[in-house]
Every structure is written in C-alpha cells, then in structure tokens.
C-alpha cells in the first residue's frame, strides 16, 4: 500500500485559511514563477518548486478531504483536483442530493474507514490527506506516514489550523526535505512511530 501523506499550504504561524475560510496569499507561490506546473498554464512556479512538487503530485492516487472542503469547492464540479483519480470525503451526511454517482468520489463516515478505502483505491500510490480538521484526525489516529507543508511567508494570527484541533503531542522526525522556492518553503517530515 502507498504512503498516507498529510499535505497543505500553511502560513508561518500554522494556519491553512483565515476564520472565513479564505487562504489569502497562501497560494501565491503557485502563480509566482515561470515554469508551468500543469497543463492549464495557470499554475507557474519556480524550477525548484516544480522539481519537488510535480513528481509528488504525479504519485497521488487518492485525496481524502472533509465535507467542509468538499462544500467550499462545490465538489470540484465532480472532477477531482490536480488530476487525482479519486476523492474520499469524510462526512456524517449523505452525498449531496442530485450528485452524479458516477463521479469518482466516495462519501465515508469516519477517518479510519476513509483511509482504508483510499488505500484500497490508491494501491501503491500515495493517499493524500488534506490538512485541517480531517488531516488532524487522521494524524491523531496514527494513520499518517508523512507530513508535507508548503510554508508561505505570511502570518495570519488566527484561522483554520493546519493540524485542526489535535489535542495531543505527535513527534515527527527531522525534516528530510527543505526546499526554498519563490514565496514558499517546502518541508517534508516523516511521522515518528
């Protein structure tokens, strides 16, 4: 089975959005370079960021996200983001009324079930868990292998926390990747077992 990776862009003080779910300048790094990151041509990053990010994105098979993110994005119009094959949505509610049941989305109650289904769907590819409350729950359940952060040079002061409402201490190894891009610092930590 593939690794389970918690991933997201984050402010220097640990937030993935402000209190109104606005990411502000957290994603400026995705349009501040000159190397196209995907076929759209909209995302352009520095060469260092491309060399780090593109191979990672290419290995993601499934993303796990919470219902809140799903609702904020309008379910990505039924198409998983960034070319990902499938999205597993953690929710206590049923799929939205009128939702296309053929869309590659699975709605699951609970993070343990979400990870199990995502790993089955991903095979040997990466299962990516969106940072925030669901990511924090997956970390607290001991199911995250690696934490990746794209740290943007901004301080929010308050908002939605990268690790959600994690209440206990979790140890990570020393960062094994530290890459400086344009308006971003890419960090990768393995979770200490």
TrEMBL record:
<dbReference type="GO" id="GO:0009231">
    <property type="term" value="P:riboflavin biosynthetic process"/>
</dbReference>
<protein>
    <submittedName>
        <fullName>Dihydrofolate reductase</fullName>
    </submittedName>
</protein>
<dbReference type="InterPro" id="IPR002734">
    <property type="entry name" value="RibDG_C"/>
</dbReference>
<dbReference type="Pfam" id="PF01872">
    <property type="entry name" value="RibD_C"/>
</dbReference>
<dbReference type="GO" id="GO:0008703">
    <property type="term" value="F:5-amino-6-(5-phosphoribosylamino)uracil reductase activity"/>
</dbReference>
<feature type="domain" description="Bacterial bifunctional deaminase-reductase C-terminal">
    <location>
        <begin position="88"/>
        <end position="172"/>
    </location>
</feature>
<dbReference type="InterPro" id="IPR024072">
    <property type="entry name" value="DHFR-like_dom_sf"/>
</dbReference>
């Amino acid at each position: 089975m593939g690794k389970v990776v918690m991933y997201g862009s984050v402010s220097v003080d640990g937030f993935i959005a402000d209190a109104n779910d606005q990411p502000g300048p957290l994603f400026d790094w995705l349009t501040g370079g000159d190397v196209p990151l995907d076929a759209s041509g909209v995302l352009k990053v520095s060469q260092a960021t491309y060399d780090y990010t593109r191979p990672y994105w290419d290995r993601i098979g499934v993303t796990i996200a919470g219902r809140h993110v799903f609702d904020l994005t309008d379910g990505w119009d039924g198409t998983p983001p960034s070319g990902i094959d499938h999205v597993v949505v953690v929710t206590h509610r049923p799929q939205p009324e009128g939702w296309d049941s053929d869309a590659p989305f699975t709605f699951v109650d609970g993070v343990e079930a979400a990870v199990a289904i995502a790993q089955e769907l991903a095979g040997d590819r990466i299962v990516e868990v969106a940072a925030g409350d669901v990511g924090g729950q997956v970390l607290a359940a001991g199911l995250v292998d690696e934490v990746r952060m794209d740290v943007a040079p901004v301080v929010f002061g308050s908002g939605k926390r990268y690790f959600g409402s994690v209440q206990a201490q979790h140890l990570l190894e020393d960062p094994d990747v530290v890459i400086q891009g344009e308006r971003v610092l890419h960090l990768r930590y393995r979770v200490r077992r």
